[in-house]
Design brief:
By secondary structure, the protein is mostly helical. It has a domain of about 100 residues: Tetratricopeptide repeat domain (Serine Threonine Protein Phosphatase 5, Tetratricopeptide repeat, Alpha Horseshoe), CATH 1.25.40. It has a two-stranded antiparallel ribbon. Helix 21 packs antiparallel against helix 22. The longest helix is centred in the C-terminal third of the chain and has 25 residues. It is elongated.
Length: about 450
C-alpha cells in the first residue's frame, strides 16, 4: 500500500527534542489503482442508479492506464486529454472515472494540487456510486493533509461525515487528530487521538508509537503536565527508548517529583541510554539537586574524560561547585583553575581565591584574587577584595590587607563586613607591632 508523504510536527519540551510524525495511508481509491477493476467494483456497489461505463470509454481509459503503468506519463495524460475532448458525449460516471485516472497519474507524479483538483471533479459528478464518492472524499482529505491544506482537510472530512454510513475506523480519528494538531486546536485534536487509542485499548492491542507521541505533544501544548507524565510512563513501558526515559525524567522534575526523576534518570544511565551531553548534564544536575553532590561531580568529570562532554569552563566550574557542596574543597581547586584558564572574565579566579582562603593557602589566594580583579567581569567585585584582604591578613601583610578591605568597603554589599575587618586588622597590626617592640 502506498503512503503519502509524511507530515511532521515539532516537540515543544525542555528535554526533548523529539518530533511528532504521522504517515497517511492512501485509501482504496488510490491504492487499488491501476486497474479498471476499481470502476467495476464501485459500479457493483452502487446504491443508486449509475450510468454504465461503455466499452468504448473503457478501452480508452485502459489505454491511458497502460501507458502510465509503463512509465509513459506524458502519453497517458495525452490519452486522457483526447478522451476529455469528447466529454460532451460521455455520461456522468464516465467523466468521473476519467478525472479519477487524471488524479491517479498526478498523484503518482507527486503533483498533489492537480491530483486534488482532479479528485474534486470526481465527487462533483452526481451519478457515481456512493462507495466511490465516500472513498474519494476521504482520499481528498488525506491529500490535502499531505499538501499542508489543513482547513481543507476538515472540510473534506465534514463532507465525508455527511455521506458515511459505515463504522468509523481509527484512520478517520487519526487524520482528524493530526489536522487539529497542525491547526493548533489541541483540545479538539485530543478528542480524536484519545478515541484512536481507546479503540486500540478496547481491542487489546498496543497503541502505535506515533499515536502516543502525538497525544503527548498535545497534552504538553495544553500545559497538562500530569497527563504528559502518564503518557511518557506508558511509552517507556511499551517502547523502552532512551529518549522517552530522559523525557520522563525531565517531566518528573518539572512536576516536582524529584525522587521519581532521580530514579528514572539513574535507571536510564545504568541501561546505557544517556549518551548525549545534554542527557549527562541532566543526570549530573539531578544528582546535585537531590543532595548527591559528589556523584554529580564524578558523573560530569567522567563524561569529560570520555569525551562525551566538552572541556568547557562551565562544565569544569560545575564540577568544582559540586565538590564544594560535597565538602571536597581541595578537589575543587583543580577544576576551578581549569575553568579560570578557559575564561576571559575573572569570576572563576575569584571562586578559586575564596577556596584557597578556606583551605589556608593564602599566597595562592592572594594571587588568584589579584588575577580576578585584573581580568574583571566580576558580578561581585567586593568578594575578590574580601578574599584578598583575608589572604593578606593571614600572611600578616596588615597594610595590604587594610587596603584591600577599604576597596571592599566601597561596595554596599560588603561594606559592613569590610568595616569590621578593617577594625580587626588594625587592632592586630597594633598588637603585632607592640609584641615586636617588646621582644627587642
Amino acid at each position: 500500500m502506498k503512503l503519502l508523504p509524511t507530515a511532521k510536527f515539532l516537540k515543544i519540551m525542555l528535554f526533548c527534542t523529539a518530533a511528532v510524525s504521522t504517515s497517511i495511508v492512501v485509501p482504496s481509491t488510490l491504492s487499488l489503482m491501476p486497474g479498471l477493476n476499481v470502476a467495476i467494483a464501485h459500479a457493483e456497489q452502487k446504491t443508486k442508479r449509475v450510468p454504465a461505463l461503455r466499452e468504448k470509454v473503457y478501452s480508452q481509459l485502459a489505454r491511458a492506464q497502460k501507458l502510465a503503468d509503463e512509465g509513459d506519463v506524458k502519453g497517458g495524460l495525452e490519452a486522457l486529454d483526447s478522451i476529455q475532448e469528447r466529454a460532451s458525449s460521455m455520461n456522468s460516471y464516465e467523466i468521473a472515472m476519467m478525472h479519477n485516472f487524471y488524479g491517479f497519474i498526478y498523484y503518482n507524479e507527486n503533483d498533489l494540487p492537480k491530483a486534488i483538483a482532479s479528485f474534486e471533479k470526481v465527487v462533483a459528478e452526481e451519478a457515481i456510486p456512493e462507495s466511490l464518492r465516500l472513498s474519494t472524499t476521504f482520499s481528498l482529505a488525506q491529500l490535502a493533509m499531505a499538501n499542508g491544506e489543513y482547513k481543507k482537510v476538515i472540510a473534506f472530512l465534514d463532507k465525508w461525515d455527511e455521506i458515511n454510513t459505515k463504522l468509523i475506523t481509527e484512520g478517520y480519528y487519526l487524520l482528524r487528530a493530526q489536522t487539529y494538531y497542525q491547526l493548533k486546536e489541541y483540545s479538539k485534536g485530543l478528542e480524536y487521538i484519545n478515541q484512536v487509542i481507546a479503540l486500540s485499548d478496547s481491542e487489546g492491542k498496543t497503541p502505535k508509537e506515533n499515536w502516543l507521541v502525538l497525544q503527548r505533544a498535545m497534552y504538553y501544548s495544553l500545559n497538562q503536565t500530569d497527563k504528559v507524565v502518564a503518557v511518557l510512563e506508558r511509552m517507556v513501558k511499551l517502547y523502552n527508548k532512551p529518549e522517552y526515559w530522559v523525557q520522563l525524567a525531565g517531566m518528573y522534575g518539572e512536576t516536582g517529583k524529584e525522587k521519581e526523576q532521580l530514579a528514572v534518570i539513574e535507571a536510564a544511565y545504568q541501561q546505557g541510554f544517556l549518551k548525549t551531553k545534554s542527557d549527562l548534564r541532566q543526570l549530573s544536575q539531578t544528582y546535585l539537586y537531590n543532595g548527591l553532590a559528589y556523584k554529580a561531580a564524578k558523573t560530569m568529570s567522567d563524561a569529560i574524560e570520555k569525551g562525551l562532554v566538552e572541556k568547557s569552563a562551565k562544565n569544569y566550574a560545575f564540577i568544582a561547585e559540586a565538590m564544594i557542596q560535597a565538602k571536597e574543597d581541595e578537589k575543587s581547586i583543580s577544576y576551578f583553575a581549569k575553568a579560570a584558564d578557559l575564561s576571559e572574565h575573572g569570576k572563576y579566579d575569584q571562586r578559586l581565591a575564596e577556596v584557597y582562603v578556606n583551605t589556608e593557602q593564602y599566597e595562592e589566594a592572594a594571587d588568584a584574587a589579584r588575577k580576578a580583579l585584573d581580568k574583571g567581569g566580576l558580578d561581585f567585585e567586593s568578594n575578590a577584595y574580601v578574599a584578598l584582604g583575608m589572604a593578606q591578613y593571614n600572611m600578616q601583610n596588615f597594610d595590604a590587607s587594610i587596603l584591600a578591605f577599604e576597596q571592599a568597603e566601597k561596595h554596599k554589599k560588603s561594606q559592613r563586613l569590610a568595616q569590621q575587618w578593617i577594625k580587626y586588622v588594625k587592632r592586630e597590626k597594633v598588637h603585632a607591632e607592640t609584641l615586636k617592640t617588646a621582644l627587642l
